């Protein structure tokens, strides 16, 4: 039994007329009649009753028709699905993000994908600092990364998404909580909550350079691996955390975020393997371009 024989049967069952079915199938009637006879012989059952004036489904034919319709629908859907996959309109996009980008850029990216590429699923990996994302890209565990340069691994290209000023997160009862803005110098005697030194955090580097420019080295009282943990410790009153502006989009009960007048900024980029020519990545980049997600004038 071949798939075309099922399509022949479905056409005759729909029309109850061999001539009309043959016309729909763009074939002559005699080969169609012969094919249905062979199908009936193979199944050892009559699927149609035939008279000189009428063709009708038998009880067995009605049962067979239900299953054939289901099979043909599944086949057509599989063909359409593999076509969407080959053209990058369906599949799984594995995305890595820094902790702070999870709060602002992840929701925006998810909304854009849902609208522009509705058959693409996201596999999200958050709280990944730049070195971890670079490794994930090189080892093909990630398709794209939302990370902070510099990128040290070869074979990774990127486009800028944002240039974020550093802000300071302080407990709500902190003496700076009511200030309009803060200067780095005012943090000289504070306990800092920072990413672990061994993690290679770009944000840490910017915080240290900002403090050194104001004449002091930050006192790191607690080290964390995740942005959410840093905010939790701030809320608990264990210190302050200097983080990218995107943390303002995070749920942060018990935390006040203040602009820092003289702090450095930290760039955020979308990164991917330079060799990746997949249709899925191409469609993503085109969608981001259409919606002006990349910083203007940066290619």
TrEMBL record:
Lineage: superkingdom: Bacteria
Listed GO CC annotations: protein-DNA complex
CDD domains: PBP2_LTTR_aromatics_like
Keyword check for Ribosomal protein: no
Domain (HTH lysR-type) ranges: 1-58
InterPro entries: LysR_HTH_N (IPR000847), LysR_subst-bd (IPR005119), WH-like_DNA-bd_sf (IPR036388), WH_DNA-bd_sf (IPR036390)
Gene Ontology molecular function: any one: DNA binding
Keywords assigned by UniProt, alphabetized: DNA-binding, Transcription, Transcription regulation
Gene3D superfamilies (alphabetical): Periplasmic binding protein-like II, Winged helix-like DNA-binding domain superfamily/Winged helix DNA-binding domain
A family per Pfam: LysR_substrate
Similarity-based family: Belongs to the LysR transcriptional regulatory family.
Family matches, as PANTHER family: HCA OPERON TRANSCRIPTIONAL ACTIVATOR HCAR, TRANSCRIPTIONAL DUAL REGULATOR HCAR-RELATED
Name recorded for this polypeptide: Transcriptional regulator
């Amino acid at each position: 039994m071949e798939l075309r024989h099922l399509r022949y049967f479905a056409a005759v069952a729909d029309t109850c007329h061999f001539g009309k079915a043959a016309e729909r199938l763009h074939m002559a009637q005699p080969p169609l009649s012969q094919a249905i006879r062979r199908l009936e012989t193979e199944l050892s059952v009559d699927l149609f009753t035939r008279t000189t004036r009428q063709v009708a489904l038998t009880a067995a034919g009605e049962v067979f028709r239900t299953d054939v319709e289901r099979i043909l629908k599944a086949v057509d859907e599989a063909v359409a699905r593999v076509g969407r996959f080959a053209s990058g309109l369906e599949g799984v996009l594995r995305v890595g993000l820094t902790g702070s980008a999870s709060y602002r850029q992840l929701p925006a990216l998810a909304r854009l994908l849902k609208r522009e590429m509705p058959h693409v699923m996201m596999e999200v990996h958050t709280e990944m600092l730049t070195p971890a994302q670079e490794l994930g890209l090189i080892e093909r565990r990630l398709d794209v990364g939302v990370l902070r340069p510099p990128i040290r691994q070869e074979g990774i290209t990127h486009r800028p998404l944002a240039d974020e000023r550093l802000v300071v997160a302080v407990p709500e009862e902190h003496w700076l909580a009511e200030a309009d803005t803060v200067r780095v110098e005012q943090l000289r005697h504070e306990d800092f909550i920072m990413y672990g030194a061994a993690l290679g955090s770009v944000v840490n580097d910017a915080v240290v350079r900002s403090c050194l420019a104001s004449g002091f080295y930050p006192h790191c009282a607690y080290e964390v691996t995740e942005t959410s943990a840093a905010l939790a410790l701030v809320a608990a009153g264990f210190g302050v955390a200097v983080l990218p502006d995107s943390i303002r989009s995070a749920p942060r009960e018990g935390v006040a975020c203040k602009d820092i007048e003289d702090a450095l900024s930290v760039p955020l980029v979308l990164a991917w393997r330079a060799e990746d020519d997949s249709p899925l990545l191409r469609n993503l980049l085109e969608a981001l371009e259409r919606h002006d997600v990349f910083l203007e004038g940066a290619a």
